[in-house]
Amino acid sequence: MRRREFVAALSGMLALAACGDGAGPGSTPAEPPPPPPPPPGGPVPGANVTVNVEDNAFVDPSGRRNGDAEVTIRSGETVGWRHVGANPHTVTSTAVPSGARAFDSGTFGNNETFTVTPSVPGTYVYHCATHPSIMVGSRIIVT
């Protein structure tokens, strides 16, 4: 009989423990984890169009990446780049129309921005000077 009583008491205690919150008497329940940070991105202030600079990719507003990334603006409008990755990058022109000014952001990091306001119509090609074999061939078409 004693064995049955012991087994019954033990079973009852285990059932109660399974229903609890895991915190023992006098302990404080664990705090919930902090909310995730807000997603980076959003338009670059003053820019007519924003291109995101992710890790290993320029991403235009349509979602096209690197060599397929392309934006079309009118002369005098502004293109902005917002860095949304962890790795440092640059936005460096590799070809500009005759009479246009070359551009280079220098190295910039997460949530930093860079803008260019081209005034000469034509095609501007840029890459990341830090990752020239991966982040290459992106274009700005100025009409």
Would you tell me the structural class of the helices and strands?
alpha/beta
Query: What fraction strand?
Result: 25-35%
Strand order of the largest sheet: 2-1-4-6
Counting DSSP H or I runs of 4 or more residues, the number of helices is 1
Describe, in plain words, how this protein is organized in 3D.
The chain is elongated. It contains one helix and eight strands; from the N terminus they run αββββββββ. The longest helix has 18 residues, at 2-19. It has 143 residues and is α/β, with parallel strands linked by helices. A four-stranded mixed β-sheet has the order 2-1-4-6, with no helix packed on it. The chain has a four-stranded mixed β-sheet with strand order 3-8-7-5, with no helix packed on it. It has one helix at 2-19, and strands at residues 49-54, 57-59, 70-73, 79-83, 92-95, 113-116, 122-127, 138-142. The model has no long low-confidence stretch (mean pLDDT 85).
